[in-house]
Amino acid sequence: MMPEIGLGESIPPDTAHAVSVSLPTWKANVGYEEGEDWVVNRMTTGYPRFFVHKGIQAFAKDIVDRHGSPGQQAMLFPTPRVANRCQDFILQRVSPELASQVRIIDFTLNKSKELSPVLKKLTSTISAVVYPSEVFPIAKQYWQHTGEGTSSRRAEFCHGLFKDDLLIPAARSRTPPEASQGRPFRGPRRYTRPGSIDGISSPAPSTPKQPSPETPVESLESSRFLEERFGRNLDLSMVERAKSAIRRRIAGAMAHDVDLNNGPLPAMTSNTRGMPNLEESDVYLYPAGMNAIFNAHRALLHAREPAQSINFGFPYVDTLKILQKFGPGCLFYGHASADDLDDLEARLKSGERFLGLFCEFPGNPLLTCPDLTRIRKLADEYDFAVVVDETIGTFANINVLPVADVVVSSLTKIFSGDSNVMGGGLVLNPESKYYRTLKTVMDEIYEDNYWPEDVIFMERNSRDFESRVVRINANSDAICEVLRTHPLIKSIYYPKYNDSKSHYEKVRLPDGGYGGLLSVVFQQKEHAQAFFDALPLAKGPSLGTNFTLASPYVLLAHYQELEWAERFGVDPYLVRVSVGLEETTELQGTFTDALKAAEAVSVTS
């Protein structure tokens, strides 16, 4: 078992780029959501889309101190195009007075300085969206929903260059980079403005303040050391092969270790996706799983006449927000039931048309599996795309690509397992009727923003992905056996035992299991709280870790909308468990002991 982790410490402990944080008691989770100082002030990190990494915060502050004004803040993004989209999101939601104070500063390498070959090959860019402090909540929405913010490793490296005066403001063009590609956003006029592409205003050029002569700058010896350290830790010649290895694993064409030092990888000859025509180039990598979802939606808006999307099933919170806020809107079906499909079919027969249907398989946190066979039939008949998020099921257990047009996944989760790097994947189905159009659009809009260090970590972490999934499947089944017959427990949610099991079985691989995520609801909330507090496990946000990780998920994801979530059968006192690689009997004992702690709590009616 993982050693006890104190409130606010990173999960895993002492990990600079961890993607989870310890909230070890029920009270601490509530305190976090309420913004109570005793919790918030002890947070050293957090899930990266919800908690801006302190290294990124420090870099943003230094940029504002040098190039901004008092009362301003900055949000950091990897490229000018991404910054443009954030700026546009903000401008649509603030007053003209505040909008006039929102600007972008693009940073690029200072070519007047002596630069090493390693540094010249890196895309060492950062774009800062600078805004008045009162705009932060809106900028944070964009950061959280889209997953487009800079990674902490990129920020750490670029911050070092910035301190050495090797990263400086660049002249900003009047025309956003996407405009040069000549493909306008084909949406209704209310979603575009004159001089905009993809709904993004062409920003006026800005002339950021230059650093004063008194600005302290570290020596070139220091910057050379930084470059050399980076070069020693990361041979850039490995990065493209590492990306290739990741893409092939996602395609189901390679699971074993790969030598990144010996030239190109051999040609793909087969895959477990059941798609002979699937090529490595049909797989796209992103810096976060939510960014893959955001870009799947964005690609469909470019490829087809924009229309409402469908969110089918109770979703991860930001998937729904993307569909609601970025485009013509969303029709939401929270139960993913046959009745929901009946209603959708009636709408389609009456003439309503949709851009695409987005669903998770299974869903989070109830592990409900939508009827993909019926969805595919409706999509073919009424012309809408199907986008399936396979993060929880994982492509080691299920194959949803044949019934989807696009498959997305958060690589941050079980694909990595180590909880120390973010990533996302998107796969185009080569047999989809939308394939050629989507492929053309992706050629136009795709930016490879995956930072090289993150790529290397993800490739190394994912080498034993399939063997880890096998063990986690077995451990999850064993924990379910401990929980499902206990009298204190009202419901257990797991694909093997849910009413929607038949839908899961249709896409389960011959040797596939039922995944590593389960949720449990107790008869009484007091028992849920006692059970959670007694678990001697890592407790915090995220899932798919190599170690077992528990959370009162509904509190963390839907604290401001608990009544709304409950209308879809999502209990506010649900405990979600992401099962890890620990020894099976030890895990069973841990959960048995936590149940005993719950039994010891008396509940008065």
What features would you describe in this structure?
The chain is of the alpha/beta class and 605 residues long. Helices cover 38% and strands 14% of the residues. A seven-stranded mixed beta sheet has the order 9-15-14-13-12-10-11, with helices on both faces. A five-stranded mixed beta sheet has the order 16-17-20-19-18. Strands 3-5-4-6 form a four-stranded antiparallel beta sheet, with helices on both faces. The radius of gyration is 24 Å and the shape is globular. Mean pLDDT is 89; it is low at 174-227. It comes from Fusarium gaditjirri.
Short description:
The protein is an alpha/beta fold.
Based on CA inertia axes, which overall geometry fits? Answer: globular
* Overall average pLDDT: 89
Structural class estimated from helices and strands: alpha/beta
Radius of gyration: 24 Å
Strand line-up across the major sheet: 9-15-14-13-12-10-11
The fraction of residues assigned to DSSP E strands is 5-15%
**Uncertain spans:** 174-227
Give me the number of helical elements.
22
Tell me the major beta sheet.
Answer: 7 strands, mixed
Q: How many β-strand stretches? A: 20
| Helix-residue proportion | 25-40%
